[in-house]
Amino acid sequence: SMTALSAQATTSLTGAGATFPAPVYAKWADSYQKETGNKVNYQGIGSSGGVKQIIANTVDFGASDAPLADEKLKADGLFQFPTVIGGVVMAVNISGIKSGELVLDGETIGNIYLGKIQKWNDPAIAKLNPKLNLPDQNIAVVRRADGSGTSFVFTSYLSKVNSAWKDEVGAGSPVKWPTGLGGKGNDGIAAFVQRLPGSIGYVEYAYAKQNNLAYTQLVTADGEVIPPTADSFSAAARKIDWSKSFAQDLTNQKGENAWPITSTTFILVHQTQKDAAKGKEVLNFFNWAYEK
Fold first, then answer.
1. What are the residue boundaries of the structural domains of the chain, listed by start?
2. Same fold, 2-86+266-291 and 87-238+249-262
3. Which ranges carry the PBP domain (predicted)?
4. What gap in Å lies between CA 215 and CA 229, rounded to an integer?
5. What is the C-alpha separation between 265 and 64, in angstroms, rounded?
6. Would you say 21 and 148 are in contact if contact means Cβ atoms under 8 Å apart?
7. Measured CA distances, 56 to 49, 59, 215 (Å)
8. Is pLDDT at 1 greater than 60 in this prediction?
9. Which stretch of DSSP H or E encloses residue 49?
């Protein structure tokens, strides 16, 4: 019938939230539009913003790296599903140090973010990097200023690997940061690290690659020193039982080559859709992406 045809001509979806998966969603949206003619407009505004917008019904889907608790989903009539697994890397700007050369562990990163380690040639960093010529350079700590799923993942990790961090700061999407310069979004952190000599920041892997930032190797839960790779992010999810709940913490997982700061990112949609065609189209888009 005529009406069905016009409804299917083209649809345009809006989504907002996490900056962590934004590069992937942008790529998907571009290919999807070429294939189907349907537009998907995704705004990377941070996970907290995405959750607020989907609850307020101002977007067709929200996106968050921090999974919502089952009670919260029920209360707001939302359904949550995971889309991609990604890794948070430590991006650094240290004179004379190239990408992949520096090794850090959780205890040391926690102490840098607590403001306890302030120089790049600190004995704790030197001990992990006996072969590197570390400069006597001040560390400029960069962290998120906005409510961020990437911060949630990073601080969840630090809470597991640094007891002082766990006691004094803890995990959260915003936390009371003991120190550091605040940037908005993964792109804001990347821009600061690029410009600031001596800086360290945490960003999703794609942002480090896109901005040609030097990133570090990390010591895994098993004590292995590894660089970040797509395989190491997948390895962190190997032992997870998704049937219990999608709200799983992938940080500091044991297992060979498991990147310690790994996260799933989630899409949030309303269980009951005001506009059935749009609701269906959101699922069509993500199903299409899964099958690629």
1. 2-86+266-291, 87-238+249-262
2. yes
3. 7-286
4. 11
5. 6
6. no
7. 10, 8, 37
8. no
9. helix 47-55
Give, for 114, the enclosing helix (H) or strand (E): none
Please tell me the predicted confidence (pLDDT) of residue 9.
Answer: 58
d(CA 255, CA 236) in angstroms, rounded, equals: 7
Q: Which CATH class is domain 87-238+249-262?
A: alpha beta
> Between these two residues, 136 and 8, which has the higher pLDDT value?
136
Any residues with CB less than 8 A from the CB of 41 and at least 6 apart, and which?
A: 12, 13, 14, 15, 29
**What are the DSSP E strand ranges found in 50-97?**
61-64, 78-93
Weakest mean pLDDT among 150-164, 192-206, 221-235, 237-251: 237-251
Estimate to the nearest angstrom the gap between the alpha carbon of 92 and the chain centroid.
Answer: 17
Supply the pTM of this predicted model. Answer: 0.90
pLDDT tens digit sequence for 212-270: 999 999 999 999 999 999 999 999 999 888 887 777 889 999 999 999 999 999 999 99
